[in-house]
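If you are new to this repository, start here. Below is one unmodified record pulled from the training split, so you can see the exact layout before writing a loader.
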Amino acid sequence: MSCDNCIYKMLANILKGEVPLRGIKTVKKYEEEIKLLRKKLDVLNDEVNTLEEKYSALTETTADAIISTDREDRIVFCNPSAMKMFGYNEKIIGMPSTILMPERYRTIHSEGIRRYLETGIPRVIGATVELEGLKKDGTVFPIELSLSAWKSETHWYFTAIIRDITERKTMEKALMEANRKLEELSNRDGLTNLYNRRYAAKAFEVEFDQSRRYRMPLSCLMIDIDHFKNINDTYGHVFGDKVLVHLSNVLLEMERSCDIVARYGGEEFLIILPNTDTKGASDFAERLRATVPERGIVCEEKNVSVNLNISIGVSSYSKHVKNIRELINYADRALL
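And here is the target side for that same chain:
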C-alpha cells in the first residue's frame, strides 16, 4: 500500500473518530516526509533534464558521428553529424548498422557483436581503429572509429564515435609521396639523374648478398670516358657536363630493367649486372664500347661533332670475392 493511500485511510479514520489524537501527529509526519521526497524528486528531475540538455547539445553540435545500436545491431540513435557524414537525409533509426560499412566488413562485424554478447571478449570494443565507411551513394571513405558497449537493466547497447579522416589521409598520402620523391632525389646524381654512388653501394650490397646466398651470377662494369680532361680543356666544362649527360642517356638506353646504372664519380660510371656471368658482362661491355663512338655529340659553340670513346673494366662474383669493394676494385683495375 502506498504512503498516500495510508494517509488517506488514516484521515478517513480520524474523521470517523476511530483514530486517537496521536495518529494525527503521525499523519502530519508522513505529509512532511512526502513533501520532502517530492522536493528531492523535483531536484533530481531538474538534474536529469539538465544532463539531457547537455547531452543533446553535445551530440547535436559535435562534428563526429555518434551512433548507437541494440544487440540486434539496429540503429537506435544517430546524431545529425552521422546523417551528414554518411549522406542520409531520411531517418535511419531501426536500420542495421551494416548499411554504413563496406560489404567486406559486415560478416566480421556481425560475428564480433555475437561473440562479445556470448563471451564478453572484445576485439574492437574499447579500442580506436581506422576502417572505412560507406556513404549512401556508395562512396567509401576512411574513418576512425571508437566503439563502446554498455548495458541497461535488461538490454545491451553499442555506441560508436566516428570521425571522417579523409583529409588526414590525403595529407598523409601527400607527405608519403613527398618523402618518396625526396628519397628518390637523394639517390640521384644531380647532373646526370643516374643513381649516385651512395645508392649504388647500397643496391650492390643487396645484389651481392643475393648472389652469395643463392649462388647466382653477378657482374659489374666500371666505365671511364677516355681523355675527358682534354675534352674539358678543349671545349669547356659546360660541354664536359653535356658529355656526361649524353653518355648517361646512352647507358640508360642499353641497360636491362634489372641493371643499376650509377655515376660513380667524375667521369666514371658503374653498372651493376644481376644474374650475369663474366661472358654476359663482357658481351655487354663490347656492345657499349662499339655503340658509344657512333653516338656523336655536337659542340655548338665550336660547331663540331665530338665522338666519345670509353674504357670498360669487367669483374664477376666468385666464392673468392669477399665483398663489393673487391668486386669494384677488380673492375677498376681492369680499366688499365
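Two things worth knowing about this chain: The chain has ten helices and eleven strands. Residues 3-59 form one domain.
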